[in-house]
Amino acid sequence: MENKNLVFQMNKFVGDLHVFKTKVHNFHWNLVGEHFFVIHPMLDGIMAEIDTQIDGVAERILMIGHRPFGSLEVYLKHTVLGEVETKPYTGKEAVKHMLEDFKLLLAELNIILKMAEDEDDQETITLMTDIGALYQKHIWMFGAWLA
């Protein structure tokens, strides 16, 4: 596949996922307050999902004949996500931050989906659709929990 724009978007997404995992890890380590015992283990699950997504997208980039980004400097240069400081976070603060990030990640994912559709790249479409469905579920559930 020669669509370098699609590969670049997928690489940006790999970077977004690495930044997101770092943020979730920060919340995991610095979580405080009454919701600790609910949110703390949930964050383990989110980090495991992110690891699977990073691997899936990076391997797809390799399958189509390109190389995934593998540098923190490059991830930070291209990510749409902002970093958060190291400080205590309540469950509600952490979930609110992650909800906003899931929305940003879903928007980035939809750019990849459109490009993959234009290329008739069914495998990338399937991968991104599965990730997008999970993000939509998290957005719904996090929003319901915060309501």
Describe this structure in a few short sentences:
The protein has 147 residues and is mainly alpha-helical. 78% of the residues lie in helices and 3% in strands. The chain has helices at 4-30, 36-63, 72-78, 91-118, 122-146, and strands at residues 31-32, 89-90.
**Average residue-wise pLDDT:** 97
Shape: globular
Radius of gyration: 16 Å
Query: Which architecture name does CATH use?
Result: Up-down Bundle
CATH topology descriptor: Ferritin
Low-confidence stretches: none
Distance between the termini: 44 Å
CATH uppermost class: Mainly Alpha
Q: How many domains is the backbone divided into?
A: 1
Oligomer: single chain
Biggest sheet layout: 2 strands, parallel
CATH superfamily: Ferritin, core subunit, four-helix bundle
Say how many strands there are: 2
Q: Level of helix content? A: over 70%
Q: Quickly count the helices.
A: 5
Describe this structure in words.
- This protein has helices at 4-30, 36-63, 72-78, 91-118, 122-146; strands at 31-32, 89-90.
- With 147 residues, it is mainly alpha-helical.
- It has a two-stranded parallel ribbon.
- The chain has a single domain, classed as Ferritin (Up-down Bundle).
- The chain is 78% helix and 3% strand.
